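Lab channel / #folding
Pinned by the channel admin:
"Please post every new chain as: sequence first, then the structure tokens as a reply. Keep commentary short and put observations after the output so the thread stays searchable."

First post following the new format, from NK:
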Amino acid sequence: MSYLSGGFAMLTGIMQDLPKSEQKIATYIMNAPEKVITMTAKQLGEVSETSSAAVIRLCKSLNLSGFQELKMRIAGDLHKPDHKEYREIEENEPLDSIINKMTQNSIQIIRETEQVLRQEDVDKAIQALQKAKAIHFFGMGASGLVAADAQQKFLRAGRTAYYLTDPHLSFTTLSNATEQDVAFAMSYSGETNETIKFVELAKERGVMTISLTKYGANTISNQADISLTTSPTQEAITRSAATSSRLAQLHVMDILFMAFVSTQYEQVIRSLDRTKEIIDQINQ
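Reply from TO:
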């Protein structure tokens, strides 16, 4: 990215989980962002009727380095084109309108995911996947579809990768994992019970854990060794955001896979070519 941004998406995503003092600060920022980017932490604490300490706590809740980074992200948001809200599908809506809305929603969540995805965490995840003897992917529901996609990508790249649709079999396979393996848990909410237990089992086995959840504090990202995040956009009435969140998860996995390919290019390309030749032969 040429500049930091994503402040609005971060604040919106975790607003309801913040303590009241931090909510007051976040609300003030959202209502008067142009003023905030020229303030000190002390000044923001005063105008929001809280304190400079509460401002610093908010920055920690956002997983930012400090108030300066928050101001830079807000300033970056202000320099972007007008923000477009997610749009819900209505009853008997014309097809052209549905196409336009879903396209804009998809573009929006991918852009927001770029803003909240921390490069240093992506780099750590890539290094872990490079070293892994085997990768154990896990996800329930829509996240399971992302896990299945990730498995086939890494299998084609010549890596040992597991994703089993039966959660019990996933736990059975993980119970035999070693410290050389990696457990990759996916859950948009970060609170899916089966996925929490998957991470807990991995940690009991001494297995490195990577999580992919929405941005913000949640059980799974807090437990994982490496936490990756997507846009924290809230689900709409007809769950269009669930569709968008799946797309965001796929986007992050594509980033990880392509970065993985780039670091081991010749070896992975040979594996991809071999698997393509075999599939082509079968289809003849």
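NK: Residues 240-263 form the longest helix (24 residues).
TO: also worth noting, The domain at 116-280 is CATH 3.40.50.10490 (Rossmann fold).
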